[in-house]
Amino acid sequence: MTSKQVSLGFIVNSPGVLSLIQDAGRYGCFNLGLSNGGPADAQAFYWANRLCNNALDASAIEVSVGGLQLTAQIDCTIAVTGAPMLLTVNGQAKPLWRSFKVKAGDNICLGYASLGVRCYVAVTGGFDIEASFGSTATLCRENIGGLSGDKLQVHDVLPINTPSNNTKHVQQLLAEQDQPQYANHLMLRTVQSYQYQQFSTVERSLFYANEYQVSQHWDRMGYRLEGRAIKADIEGILSEGICYGAVQVPADGQPIVLLNDRQTIGGYPKIGAVISQDCAKLSQLRQGDSVHFQAITMSEADNLFHLNLARLQAIKLIPCD
Amino acid sequence: MSVIISDAIRLEVAGENALILYFFEPKLRQGNVVGSISDARDNKVISTKLNKQVQQAAQLIRFHLADDIVDLIPSYASILVVFDLIKIDHHQLRNKLQVLLQDTDTQAINQGKVIKLPVYYSLESGRDLPRVAKRAQLSIEQVIEIHQAQTYSVYAIGFAPGFAYLGEVEQRIATPRLSSPRLKVPKGAVAIADRQTAVYPADSPGGWNIIGLCPLAMFDANLSPPMPISVGDSVKFVAIDKQQYLELGGKICN
């Protein structure tokens, strides 16, 4: 490995509960058993990078629950998006969903989210992290990505790329009506897929009619839910590939929605798969929050994906100074 | 949503940007079509023949549909096809797969290589050897002998980076998973679950029966390629003694 010139960026004074470097995710590594990783809430991640005029897959920090504290080593422009956490710079409150300048020596602190779970901290130019298997996405379980395969630690230094001159000083905001809203209850639109026909019509109806609570096991790998148990006609299947959002139903009948850091293959029956934009929202829920599932067709899922994309692209950021 | 692609392949929806191909024995398609599909779904038998078809189809898809595909997950008798929603929709992909895979039997298949993996089989390194032997009513030496006798196919890689599902273990020493998984199975553990065997690429929780330790790294992010084996290869296990195990870099932890 060639030695790299050390560039400046941010010093981590406190990593908070769980702060991870994430880019858009790791693709093309399923043959090694490596999952995608990437931002749990892709929508909030998207806005953080757009507000900073970055490439949409630039590396940012995903802050779960809160508590991240940084000191800037150089003047730069940052944006924080996602769950409402109290953001301060040198003790002064700053708004989320808006890019603004910070100076060398400034202390940037995030409080704790009361609603929602995850925030994204992006910097104009992006964090300068060496990719591993084509991505900087941190997968702690496998010790891959991030700074050294791990979550952020006290005293870590996060170097940033020098932005090109024309993007350097842009400050802009996302209008309030365009900001995603966070809640304690969600409707998860779900494509009926995989082994859904191995669940009787009655079991399927119960699955879609009942409310499920987020259990104590919720993380980037998946959300285990609690509610009315549903039974498949079969106990297991030959292990097969698991897609993002797949709803796995183990023998105890309690569904698990599998997310970014899921295992790549598994042998439990699956009743369907939650669409990506609702997976992103699900990742903002915590224990005790609740969900409903709504059955949709593949064509509806396709429409929803493209509609969402078109809407995001049509939204214009508002310049501010 | 089920689509029959050929007399041995069926296509189903998996998720917003994923379809899954299921491979089954044509004989299961006797009788009406609906019945045959559920037969194939219930199929839990591991088949080398089906797995070869899976690998062949995966190669074809990788080669011909590279622009539309984000990634593939081939497994025992299925391929998850994750596609790029910006470039292609599920109707178009379905048609392309149908044309591509209509007659997979005519294509040549990459044979793969045979990899020998050294294993230190002992009570010290394989704490479940007595359990496997007792269940099979064999001596520990016989279990070790039988495990080495087979040439195993690499059916799938997944669960964790570098974890290769190898099969099939001879029926006599096939042993079900532990009723409660261990919190920590050591890196390099060679283990059996039913008729599957594997080498744990890293310390991890696991419920497979440990019968030995392999000193070679099954996954090293700093190497290229990071894994010594890939799907389609064959694996033979070769017994080594403790000294050889340690010389090859193996570790004994308690």
Description:
The complex is a heterodimer of chains A (321) and B (254). Chain A is an alpha+beta fold and 321 residues long. Chain A contains 4 helices and 22 strands. Chain A has a 7-stranded mixed β-barrel. In chain A, strands 7-6-9-4-1-11 form a 6-stranded antiparallel sheet, with no helix packed on it. In chain A, strands 2-3-10-5-8 form a 5-stranded antiparallel sheet, with helices on one face. In chain A, a hairpin with a 2-residue loop joins β6 and β7 (92-94). Chain B is of the alpha+beta class. Chain B contains 6 helices and 14 strands. In chain B, α4 (129-136) crosses α5 (140-149). The longest helix of chain B has 17 residues, at 48-64. Chain B is elongated and about 55 Å long. Residues 28-42 of chain B have low confidence and may be disordered. Classes of the chains: A alpha+beta (321), B alpha+beta (254). Chains A and B meet through β16, β19 and α4 of A and β2, α1, β4 and β5 of B.
